[in-house]
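Reviewers of the previous submission asked for a worked example of the structure-prediction workflow described in the proposal, so we include one complete record here. The input consisted solely of the amino acid sequence. No template or homolog information was supplied to the procedure at any stage.
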Amino acid sequence: MQTVLVINSKGGSGKTTIASNLASLFAASYLKTALMDYDPQGSSLYWNSIRQQGNYPAIHVVDASHLKVGLTRTFQLRIPDDIERVVIDAPAGMCSKMLTEMVSRADVIVVPVLPSPIDIHASSEFIYELKLIINACRRTNTVLGIVANRARSDSGLYEPLKCFLGELDIPFITTLTDTDSYISAVERGMGIHELKPQTVKLELSQWLPLVKWLADTRSATAAPLSTGAGMAINHH
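From that input alone, the workflow returned the following structure tokens.
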């Protein structure tokens, strides 16, 4: 099982968009997938409720943000034994205990960063904090990568962040632009990779580096991921 944590302490960075698209990508690749929603707003839960009304590959959803009376935390967060991929949708401004809980579960951490100087500065501090928590949790195999999200273009705005990441040996994976296709997908409980490929050529090309990076974090016997364009990534 591989667990992917999508996280940033800043609100509005598009965590749910990336988390739901990752979950739908895994599910569409015939991998048994779970989506853990730690955000009290329940956006991932709502997206999946729409998804369940259509004929799409099922995703097991866990409400991790609302404590349930009579249930232990361990029982509430349980994942079925046959699950192959877990995606965690993290909230903004989480407490240190919850942050440590999520990081301790993660094999892969994806941090979306918005294209503004304030967001980039705040995210840089948060990324450094993440590195410290990963070390404290002794998650020596946990990999961390950064995605520029909702960008207008791949401009030089991210260059200082890329230099900072280079010093920490953290990859800057790809730049995702904010298009109407994401809205269309959400409204139907789908992911970008489940739309008609000819309508999302730009989006698929931008996702491809992230898909490849995730595949590279798996062993050579890992199941391939579909890119949504009739092509699978296989590392046998």
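The chain has eight helices and nine strands. We consider this example representative of the routine output the project will generate in years two and three.
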